[in-house]
Each structure stands twice: as structure tokens, then as C-alpha cells.
Amino acid sequence: MNDTDKNRIIELIKAGEKLPKEYIYKLFADEEDVFLFWNGRKEDITNIALPFHSIEHIDEPRKEKDKAQTSMFETDFRGRQLKGWTNKLIWGDNKLILSSLANGPMREEIEKEGGLKLIYIDPPFAVGSDFGFEIEIGGETAEKRQSIIEEIAYRDTWGKGISSYLTMMYERLKLMHKLLAEDGSIYVHCDWRVSYYLRLMLDDIFGIDNFRNEIIWFYPGRERISENKFQSKHDTIYYFGKSSKSKLNAVTKKWDKEERVKMLRRKIHKDEYGKEWFWETRGQANGIEPYKKYLDEYVDKGGALNDVWDDIQFLRGNHPERVGYETQKPEELLERIIKASSNKGDLIADFFCGSGTTAAAAEKLSRKWITTDLGRFSVHTARKRLIGVQRELQESGKDFRAFELLNLGKYERQFFMDDLTNGKRKAKEDLYVDLILEAYKAKRIDNHATLHGSKAGRFVNVGPLDVPVTQSLLMDIFEECRTKLYTQVDVLGFEFEMGLTPQFIQELKEKGVSVALKYIPKDVFDKRAVEKGQVKFFDVAYLNTREKIKDKSITIELTDFVTHYTQDDIEELQQSMRAGSKVVIEDGQIFKLEKDKNGIITRTVLTKDWFDWVDYWAIDFDYLSRKEIIKTKNEDGSVEEKWTGNYLFENEWQSFRTKKNPSIDFTSVAHQYKAAGKYKVMVKVVDILGIDTSKIIEVNIE
Asked: Pfam families attached here (predicted)?
């Protein structure tokens, strides 16, 4: 850059004018022939290390009566894995997850397993909403729209068009590069909408010398004639190595028998047993005599695999693998990638989990795995699918690993608030309370110990940002209300202490204070949604059970489930909808609204019974048996372990609906306790919207 260029740039900056693109290139290009630049590109990446919060530990019990223990893992008396790597299903923003994996204590665990050998990702392609999903109920289809926090993620991805998509992907791919082992590989699945952008970005991050293949996944079937273009029939999968150390295992392409016979152009014979064979004549030029070659051996061996994969079909709507997830990919596709770029016992990852195909294929192929997603429905779908894989492997006598469901929980919210307020504690607390009260449409009040606002004659407590609302906090609120002669209070929280039962709330009401518990939706962090009044708080759901205890064993029956989840405003919809029908969700009910041409509206309740809401439920028969321990990294690099005060939910029994089998058991198997005593049993219900509700039951085993 010469002095004329420099002076011109200074003049333009002083005048507040935009720099021509050729000057931008000159400022940032260094010695590169081509510089990849877009509006919003940043070289810095997130380097935060947040601790992971354990939600659930899932290990289908391996030990059964009168059966020998065959597992390769050290287990307890119930057959649950005690040591070794536990697979990770993580719910949250994959940017923060990747940063925490790369910079936090879990990095050491990953390195102990030999490092992360393979990453496969199938990121969004700009195909509409990334987080909404459909629910089949009463013969109708209801749409569960993405939450505002999921909409924020979608807007961050596509809000400014391709530049915001590139910014989102660039930081995540750089974090993946940082996390990947030196001999590791990455496969990035995309289609025509973003493939050319991602190729340039991968060249930039991984280096063009580490490019291995542009794989074309051509899917047979689904033939259509288009009026203005040729039919789109393939996806692109970019394969890069981290370095020259990454290796590829020998993989072959399966041959279709009939097609292969045509290609052979050989006469097929049969021996006395009916086995087909042909004369192999290759090599005659070198003096090798023709010899018999059996057709099955020839076909089964397969052929060298090239970069066009045309032998793997996409999943049709009725395919048995289908789990009700729109962008689901076939396991056969992931099996090929996993076999090609990893070995048994290797650790692999997928940071755009979807329906959990990568983890399911990895488990079946004896690989360890990490998989993550921001979508609640995605994580819940993957949880059910992976339990199904555990059951399948257990039934066939094969080994499988436990997996744990993790998130960044309160730490993710702390990071958001710290980032918003530059870490100033008092400012953070005030901003947080004001933010929630504004979203709840309540007025701020002063000079109260536990109460922050008021709304329509009710007082409001904004629960803490970084811990669940506890029973002791509710008692403090109750005491202040009783002292000041207040009779009604709403308690808002992101999380509520396990075991806050309806009975306890009823006791407070009988003593003179009516307490309503309401979830704070993550939507409150979207200022646009708050300003438009779109944020909806809803009451905590609750469940009831019946316990049967006999001879140191217990059976749990789920007897009721009540939710007040609200997504739509029926009155508003009735005014605005045209003739036709619409399925809506309001106050724990799913309705079908129908409006005829005369404006007459009829409502049909689709959730006719409480159990229509239950998609999954699980039990930990001894909830206090395992403390939740988190690991944090100190400034000196040392790792500190501490108890959070909570316990880990050990998923010992579960029943859930699947696409193949929509029925569900509402009575558990009998659980046998080894010793008499008092135990706390936790029951967890996940409803058809993917929302968790829990209850703790105290039992006395004599």
C-alpha cells in the first residue's frame, strides 16, 4: 500500500464514508493471493470456559436376574457403568459448548481418550425455521413454534443474509479446528445453497493443502420434472484433514448384484449346490489361466469408493429409521464416514445434532461420542433414540456406554448477563430484575426484602439468575408477605428446586398466601419480543403418582399430569383467522379451531386426557445416591471439583413414545431395594413439547 492509498483511506475515515472494497482488501490481505472477507468477519473467537451442568445420566441397566455380567465396563450392583468415558448429549449454544470443550476441564478428558478424531456436522442450509416441529395429536398436526431464544439463534444465523450465516459458521469452525486432534478429520454436509461459501471458508481455516474430497451424495429416487431447472439430486460433503497426519481407512462401495452382473458381461453358471459363479479372465495377458470365481464373494467384497456416493438412499417418509425429524440423514451415510475416518474406541463429535444420527451410528460402531444442539426437540428426540440404541445393543448382548445429558444451565445465563453489563455485578442484578419485570408487564417496587414488583394486585418475586428457586426462598417470601399482609404473589424463575410439590404450595395458601410459580421463558432476552409483548410466562406443570411398596420393592404409577403451556391467543386468532381450520395451543390444551364461511367458529379439544401430553417419563429410584459434581478451571490452569448441592438424575427406568410404537406404559417395573431405609424417588416427565417436569417422592422401605 503506497502513501497515496494511505492518505486516501484517512480522508475517507475522517469524512465518515465507506471504504471501497479494494482498500479493505489492501488493509487485511497481507501476502495472500485471495482474501476471504464479508461484512461482520471477526478473527477473534470465544474463549470462555463454562462448567457443564449434569441434567441426567442414562445407562440402560445391564445386569438382569439370573444373567451373568458380560459388560467390558466396571459396573455397580445394578449394572450401571462406573468408570471410563461417558458419552455426552449437550443442550445449548454450540459456540459456548465448543469454547468450553476446547478451553475447559473436559479438554483433558478428551485428550485422555486420544483426542477428537472425527467431526461430522450437518449445519442449517437456510431452509426456514430451524427449531420448530410438528406434533401429531388426535389425528391432527399441531405446530410447536420455535421459542424466541431459538428465533434469536435463527436470526443471528440468517438475519443479515449470507454474511451473518458466514459469521456464525466461521467462529464455530475455528473452534472445531482448535478442538480437533492433529490426526483428526472433519466432514461438513451442505447443499447448493451454501456449499460454495463453506468450501472457501474451510480452505481458509483448515488450509487448502488439507482438503481431501468434495463428496457428492447422489440420492436415487424422487424423480421430478421441473419447468425451469434441472432437478436437484445431491448434497455436498466436504472432507478435510486437520493436518497431513489424518488417514483414511479402506472403505468399499456395496455393489448391486444385478447391476454388477451386467457390468461383468460374463456368463453366470451354477454349481451342483446352486451357487453362482463365472470365469474370471482378467490376467490372461500376463499368462494367468481363467478360474472360477463365485458371484457372492465378488459382490460382497465391493469396489473402491470414489467421491460420488450413489448407493445410499435418502430416508423416505415411511422409512423405519424415521424418528419424526425433517432433516434426518440415513445411518448408512454416517456409518460410511465413521468407518472411513475413525477406529473402534475413537472419540467423534457432531455439533449440530439434529435427530442424533451421528451418535446412534457411532454407538453401534463402538465409537465414543459428543453431540450437541440448541433445539429442545432435537435433544429430546436424540435422547429417546439413543436409549433405543442402548436397548437394541443390550438385547443382542453387545456392549454400550452410558451417556449423560448436559447443559451450561445457569452458567450460560451468567455469561449472557456478564457480557451485557461488562461484569458489573450490581448493574447486572438491576438490569436482570428490570428486564424480567418489563417482560412480565409488572411495575418495580422498592423497600422490600424479597419482592421486586407488582402486577394487577399481585406482588412479584423475580427468582435468582444463577440458582433455582428453592423452598427456603419461598418461605422467606411467605414470611414477608404475611408480615405486610400481602395475600398473593407470583414467583418467576428459570428453574425450580426439585421436589417443590403442589402440596407445599397448597400449605402456603392455607396459611394465607397464594403463591403462583411461573417459568421465565428465555424469550425475555430478546428486546424486540419484550417490546411487542410477545413474551408469555406460564405456570409450572405438575404430575401425580401412586406408589405400591411390597417386600422391599416399589412400583410407580403415573396418574396425572397438568401443564399450562401457552403458545397462542385463541381469542385473537378467532378474530383474525379466515374460513378454514387451525390447531392452537393455549393453557395446557391443544384445540382445533374451525371457521366456516359464515364466520361460525367451533372448537375441538385434541388433548382429551392428561396422558395425551406425556411423551416420556423416567424414574430414579434412589435420587440421593449420586451428587452432581462440576469441574471448573482456575486461572493457574488447575482443575477444581465442587458439589453444586444438587444430585444427578440416574435414569433407571423409562417409557416413551416412538414413531413405530406410540403407546406408553404408565406403570413401572418393580424396583428392588437392597436395604431397608428412607429413600427419595424422582419421577421425570417430558411432555410432547419437550418440556421437563419432575417430582420427588419420599418412600420408607422396611
From this structure: N6_N4_Mtase
How far apart (Å, rounded) are the C-alpha atoms in residues 407 and 54? 7
Q: Strand pairing partners for 641?
A: 631
Q: What's the rounded Cα separation, in Å, for the pair 537 and 439?
A: 9
One DSSP character per residue, 662-681 reads ----SBPPPEEPSS-EEEEE
Residues 341, 337: Cα–Cα separation, whole Å: 6
Q: Could you tell me the three cell numbers for 235?
A: 448434497
Instruction: Give tens-digit pLDDT for 655-694.
Output: 999 888 889 999 999 999 999 999 999 999 999 988 888 8
pTM of the entire predicted model:
0.83
pLDDT tens per residue, range 353-370? 999 999 999 999 999 999
Tally of CA atoms within 13 A in the half-sphere of 196 that contains its CB: 3
Cite the beta strand spans of 254-389 per DSSP E: 269-270, 276-280, 291-294, 303-304, 308-309, 347-350, 368-373
Q: Are 402 and 383 in contact (CB under 8 A)?
A: no
Query: How many whole angstroms separate alpha carbon 390 and alpha carbon 660?
Result: 17
What secondary structure letter does DSSP report for 290? Answer: P
- The Cβ-side half-sphere exposure at 519, using a 13 Å CA radius, reads 17
CATH H-level, domain 53-254+303-407: superfamily: Vaccinia Virus protein VP39 (3.40.50.150)
Instruction: Give ∠ CA 263-268-270 in degrees, rounded to 5.
Output: 150
Contacts 24+ apart (CB under 8 A), 326-331: 326/133, 327/122, 327/127, 327/354, 327/355, 328/354, 328/355, 328/357, 329/122, 329/189, 329/354, 329/357, 330/357, 331/357, 331/360, 331/361, 331/364
Q: How many of the other CB atoms lie within 10 Å of CB of 403?
A: 29
Q: What is the pLDDT of residue 98?
A: 96
The residues, any chain, with a CB within 8 Å of residue 166's CB and separated by 6 or more, are: 38, 40, 41, 197, 201
Write the CB contacts of 9 (distance below 8 Å, at least 6 apart in sequence).
Answer: 19, 23, 27
Q: What is the gyration radius of the CA atoms in the chain, in angstroms? A: 29
Higher pLDDT, 72 or 13: 13
Cα–Cα distance measured from residue 93 to residue 370, given in angstroms and rounded to the nearest whole number: 14
Res 401: pLDDT? 93
CA gap 253, 311 in Å, rounded: 8
What is the mean predicted confidence (pLDDT) over 482-493? Answer: 95
Task: Write out 579-616 in H/E/C secondary structure.
Answer: CEEEEEEECCEEEEEEECCCCCEEEEECCCCHHHHEEE
> What CATH class is the domain 427-539?
alpha beta
List pLDDT tens digits, range 127-148. Answer: 445 666 777 887 788 777 766 5
In order, the DSSP letters of 353-379 are -TTSHHHHHHHHTT-EEEEEES-HHHH
Rounded CA separation 138/453 (Å): 41
What is the maximal distance between C-alpha atoms in the chain? 106
Contact 617, 654 (CB under 8 A): yes
Give residue for cell 420455535.
146
The Cα 197–Cα 217 span in angstroms is: 18
Give the start-to-end residue ranges of the domains of the chain.
1-35, 53-254+303-407, 257-301, 427-539, 542-701
Residue 654 burial by Cβ neighbours in a 10 Å radius (0-12, 13-18, 19+): buried
Cα four-point dihedral sign 500, 503, 505, 508: negative
Between CA 70 and CA 332 the distance in angstroms is 28
Residue ranges in 69-115 assigned as alpha helix (H): 94-103, 106-112
